[in-house]
Amino acid sequence: MQAYRKQAALCLPKAILMLALLAGPCLAGLCACKRQTGNGSATRPGRAATIQNKGSDTMVNLALAWAEAYAKARPEVHIAVTGGGSGTGIAALVNRTVDLANASRRIKDEERAEAKRNGVDPVEHTVAGDAIAVLVHSSNPISELTIPELSAVFSGKITNWRELGGEDRPIVLVSRESNSGTHVFFLETIVRQGKAGDKTLFSPDTLLMPSSEGISTEVRHNPNAIGYDGLGYVTRDQKVLGVARASGKPYVLPTVASAQDGSYPIARGLYMYSMGEPEGDIRDYLYWILGPAGQTIVKELGFVPLR
């Protein structure tokens, strides 16, 4: 298992690699053992176990695909998947109403503290990688932006495309809602440029969408719009911008390869959080997700496999 984990980590960019290594020790014991349901009780012969899985809307299609494929390998185990956002999934784990919380961001210190007050010890598992694509309307002449420019745009300091070399049009900002892990990641990495202690916020004029599909729809139909989405939700009819870390640095498009080698500057890990060290069916399910079958699905859906 140690050799397998090292091999899986080799293709990760530094940011995702660090998170994967931090999560690694909790997976060292993922091996065959007695079957258990999500609440820890042994599965009885002929009775299905149910694993409650909730959280990130970015990950919901991926989680559903995993659950469907796993049902064919282990029909006696039922995976119940729902979305609602990373914050919603983590809150459900804190309140002991789910077995696995999906998150497109890392758990916050205050969430972990609340979990501990409830007797829950959230254990992080890096299950895939992702790249956040910056999207504009297909008619927009802008093709590249730096992170400082994106920060100025989404914080409302730049409000017209003319200021970026485009047409004299107002910029329409499109974002996920604040409960979304993608929203939090984009805020910290792009709007605040990764600066600790920075309190910059999204412009109050930003349109907040309840789903990744909502962002795609708005950007696809609004010539003035700019938004962002996980790589797995990008379609061929969308215009994706190249992003540079700063002026004079190379502009890179988001792809599986550029996320894996770390050249794309807006790459992240995707996580599942368990309520303590995983056991039984939950442990087996996580082991399967990290294996060839689960990571093949990651790649098929346009996300970044760990291998």
Tell me the name of the CATH class of the largest domain. Alpha Beta
> So, the CATH homologous superfamily of the largest domain?
Periplasmic binding protein-like II
* Large-scale geometry: globular
Percentage of residues in helical conformation: 25-40%
Give helix and strand order, one letter per element, not per position: HHEHEHEHEEHEHEHEEEHEHH
Strand content: 15-25%
What average pLDDT do the residues reach? 87
What is the domain total for the residues?
2
Number of strands: 11
Largest sheet: 9 strands, mixed
The helix count comes to 11
Provide the CATH architecture of the largest domain. 3-Layer(aba) Sandwich
The CATH topology of the largest domain comes to D-Maltodextrin-Binding Protein, domain 2
List the main descriptive attributes of the protein structure presented here.
307 residues; 21% strand; D-Maltodextrin-Binding Protein, domain 2; globular; 11 helices; nine-stranded mixed sheet; alpha/beta
Describe the structure.
This protein has helices at residues 2-9, 14-23, 60-73, 86-94, 109-117, 147-154, 181-191, 212-221, 256-260, 280-290, 292-300, and strands at residues 49-55, 77-82, 100-103, 122-136, 144-146, 172-176, 207-209, 225-230, 239-240, 242-244, 267-275. The protein folds into two domains: 2-130 and 270-300, D-Maltodextrin-Binding Protein, domain 2, CATH 3.40.190.10; 131-260, Periplasmic binding protein-like II (D-Maltodextrin-Binding Protein, domain 2). Helix content is 34%, strand content 21%. Helix 4 packs parallel to helix 5 (109-117). The protein has 307 residues and is of the alpha/beta class. The protein contains eleven helices and eleven strands. The strands form two sheets. Strands 1, 2, 3, 4, 6, 7, 8, 9 and 11 form a nine-stranded mixed sheet that branches. Helix 3 links the parallel strand 1 (49-55) and strand 2.
